[in-house]
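Notes, p. 3: input format for complexes.
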Amino acid sequence: MNSFFCQIPKAELHLHIEGSLEPEMMFVLADRNNIQLPYKSVEEIRAAYNFQNLQSFLDLYYAGMSVLQTEQDFYDLTWAYMQKASAQNVRHAEIFFDPQGHTSRGVSFETVHRGIYRALQEAKQQLDISSYLILCFLRHLSAESAMEALEQALPYKDTIPAVGLDSSEVGNPPSKFQKVFDKAREEGFLTVAHAGEEGPPEYIWEAINLLGVSRIDHGVRCIDDPKLLEYLIEKQIPLTVCPLSNIKLCVFDSMAKHNIKQLLDMGLCVTVNSDDPSYFGGYVAENLQEIESALNLSRQDIYKLVKNSFQATFLSAEEKQTRITELDEFMVK
Ligand SMILES: Nc1ncnc2[nH]cnc12
Ligand SMILES: [Zn+2]
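Output follows (333 residues plus zinc ion):
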């Protein structure tokens, strides 16, 4: 790893905490909770991470989650990610969690939230990384189930500034969750949604027009709709792009064919993120390094992507500026 990509101050805005579960920890937690894994070794787990599309990944992702049972498990998972983020000079992280993936297995919302949130608070104190939590609804489940998850989150509203939408995209358009997102916005949540990862540009329009999102997660298929491109540029609606994820899930055939440089050059507010780093082979610094070499990015391109990452956060204008100043100081060193 080139140290520049580790050291440049950055924000991460698209990270599923459950997708940061490394195979080593999967074994430790399985042992601790007396769970039998269908793998004999860490190498065997990594060898299974060969995906044809989003669904083939999600099947393993939900199976992997089963080792997360106690508050301590969620704490350990989150603390491990924050240490990794600290080593890559992530200055601010906005982190997704999937409560329905846990409550459906009998783990309470409170257990999940307490473990994750405690680790985030400690990371603020000990590692000086700020963070926000984003509750994601699983779109392959019903709107009623999402509404239930929202109700469960209300007592924790002060610690969860936003809600999002993830899981199997095609066939589960944003419109399915319009009422849930209406209620979430009434309750004061900001909103984001995965859209245009595998699904069509129409889903990006729906996320904007029906769910009122502040950012689009992935969004790379906006390239198929010139009017949408124009709109995203004009409004500077950020896209949280995840290059290694897109290659592992066959959204693009190779990194050389990824459209992030094209989107950046057109003036979209694109950012680089890791999605599910343990499954896709890299955290945010590895994502930056991979696109730099495959797409011949300049230092100015990298600077712009990282600056966008701060601009696209839910931090206040003043907090954004503090971090951008730190970035500017790093660049002239
Ligand atoms: N890349 C992705 N797309 C949709 N849902 C997800 N959940 C975890 N990672 C995801
Ligand atoms: Zn994602």
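Residues 109-127 form the longest helix (19 residues).
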